[in-house]
């Protein structure tokens, strides 16, 4: 029961973050929104490590955490770019194909694919193809480009998913802290290369940090869930975050065609199948 609750809490945190972050970035500098919450997450995890006098992690753990941080950074940058070009109701399910990346890596290393995994992958990819169908777009929207950027974000998030387990070998707080160092370094480099603005009103800083803090809370909830119950329950429950984002986007006024709605539903069903079969 507790594992299921924590898994659903993970989906809630990730889903709200994926909705709130892009919405905030429409009126504030995107990289300010991206970086603020991650700085707080790093500070919180570092404080816990100092308070508990945790032993230093192994080199393998640090390398995995660095890779996870780089993948997470790219995933966030690409996801926010996708959200600026198209509706979240399409971008989020496409970005959620990240779960296919560790599955593909596992199959490449010799793991059996299995009929459920295969069906889930096919259903998810077919759903993305339908969701990306041309629709009536606003003057600043480019749905096709949004889908490509969302697929790029899926690659980054997929790398994070594949590496977060070995990165957490010596504790989730070490994984969060080490990965955030690399994530922030990548974000800082991207800010310099793109000459992206960072200034934001001081009174808005607490709000700007919310999406990153929700991601941090979701990560902790997921780690706790894996210790409390079966992975089959945790994987499926934590993969439902796109439903939260799509639901909030719908309440916020986003609309898609019936065909696109069918594609979104198919992509979500495929993601759940892949998550369930991967345990």
Molecular structure report:
- The protein is mainly α and 279 residues long.
- It has one domain.
- It has 13 helices and no strands.
- Helix 1 packs parallel to helix 11 (231-238), helix 3 runs antiparallel to helix 7 and helix 5 crosses helix 7 (143-167).
- The mean pLDDT is 82.
Give the tags.
globular
Low-confidence stretches: none
**Radius of gyration based on Cα positions:** 18 Å
As a percent range, the share of strand residues is under 5%
How can the largest sheet be summarized?
none
| Estimated helix fraction | over 70%
Helix/strand layout:
Elements lengths: L1 H24 L4 H23 L6 H27 L2 H8 L4 H9 L6 H17 L11 H25 L4 H23 L10 H4 L1 H19 L2 H8 L2 H11 L6 H20 L2
Helix pairs in contact: 1-2, 1-10, 1-11, 1-12, 2-8, 2-10, 3-4, 3-7, 3-8, 4-7, 4-12, 4-13, 5-7, 6-13, 11-13
